C-alpha cells in the first residue's frame, strides 16, 4: 500500500506519495558554502575589480569601510539574499542538491530571507561561528540563523 494523499481526476486515481524530509547536515552545507564563496570571489574578481580599475578607484583594503570592501560585502550579501529568495538555493546548494525551506511550509518571504541571510548569519558569525555549529547538533539540522528565521535546509 502506498501512503499519501489520493486524488481523483477524470476517472483516474492519482496517489501523491509523501517522502520523509531529509535535513541537510553540517558537512554537506559546509561544502556548499565553500562553493558559494568561490562563486562570490569569482564575481568580485571578474566583475567588481575590473570596474574599480577601469574607473581608477582605490582598491586599498586597509579598513573595512574602504570602497572595495563595501562593494564586495554588498556583492556577497546580494548573492545570498537574491539566490535564496528567487531559487530557495544558492549555486553551491544546487550542486549538492540542497534547498532552503520555511519550517511552516510557506514560500520564503523577503523578510524571512533577510533575517536568515543578513541578520541571522551576522549573529552566527559574531559569536565565533558557533551559530553554524548548531547544524551539527540540532534535531532538524538548523543553524542559529535558521532558528532565527524559522527555516532549515533539506535535500531535494
What's a quick, concise take on this entry?
This protein is an alpha+beta fold and 156 residues long. 56% of the residues lie in helices and 14% in strands.
How would you portray this structure in words?
The chain is of the alpha+beta class. The protein has one domain. Helix content is 56%, strand content 14%. The chain contains six helices and four strands; from the N terminus they run ββαααβαααβ. A two-stranded antiparallel sheet has the order 1-2. A hairpin with a 2-residue loop joins strand 1 and strand 2. Helix 2 crosses helix 4. The longest helix is centred in the first third of the chain and has 29 residues. The model has no long low-confidence stretch (mean pLDDT 90). It is a multi-pass membrane protein. Its main location: membrane.
Write the layout of secondary structure elements.
Elements: E1 4-9, E2 12-17, H1 26-54, H2 67-87, H3 91-96, E3 98-102, H4 110-126, H5 130-137, H6 144-149, E4 151-155
Antiparallel strand pairs: 1-2, 3-4
Key terms for this structure?
alpha+beta, two-stranded antiparallel ribbon, two-stranded antiparallel sheet, 6 helices, 56% helix, globular
Distance between the termini: 24 Å
Could you give the order of strands across the largest sheet? 1-2
Most strands sheet? 2 strands, antiparallel
The structural class is alpha+beta
Shape: globular
Q: Write down the secondary-structure element order.
A: EEHHHEHHHE
What amount of the residues lies in strands? 5-15%
Q: What Rg is obtained from the alpha carbons, in whole angstroms?
A: 19 Å
Contiguous low-pLDDT stretches (5 residues minimum) are none
Number of domains: 1
Q: Percent of residues in helical segments?
A: 55-70%
Q: How many beta-strand segments?
A: 4
If you average the pLDDT, what whole number results?
90
**Number of H/I helices:** 6
Amino acid at each position: 500500500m502506498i501512503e499519501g494523499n489520493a486524488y481523483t481526476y477524470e476517472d483516474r486515481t492519482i496517489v501523491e506519495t509523501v517522502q520523509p524530509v531529509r535535513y541537510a547536515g553540517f558537512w554537506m552545507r559546509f561544502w556548499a558554502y565553500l562553493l558559494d564563496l568561490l562563486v562570490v570571489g569569482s564575481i568580485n574578481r571578474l566583475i567588481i575589480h575590473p570596474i574599480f580599475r577601469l574607473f581608477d578607484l582605490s582598491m586599498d583594503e586597509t579598513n573595512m569601510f574602504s570602497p572595495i570592501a563595501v562593494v564586495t560585502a554588498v556583492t556577497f550579501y546580494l548573492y545570498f539574499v537574491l539566490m535564496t529568495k528567487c531559487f530557495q538555493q544558492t549555486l553551491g546548494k544546487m550542486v549538492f542538491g540542497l534547498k532552503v525551506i520555511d519550517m511552516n511550509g510557506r514560500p520564503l518571504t523577503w523578510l524571512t530571507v533577510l533575517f536568515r541571510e543578513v541578520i541571522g548569519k551576522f549573529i552566527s558569525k559574531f559569536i565565533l561561528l558557533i551559530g553554524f555549529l548548531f547544524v551539527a547538533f540540532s534535531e532538524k539540522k538548523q543553524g542559529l540563523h535558521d532558528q532565527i528565521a524559522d527555516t532549515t535546509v533539506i535535500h531535494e
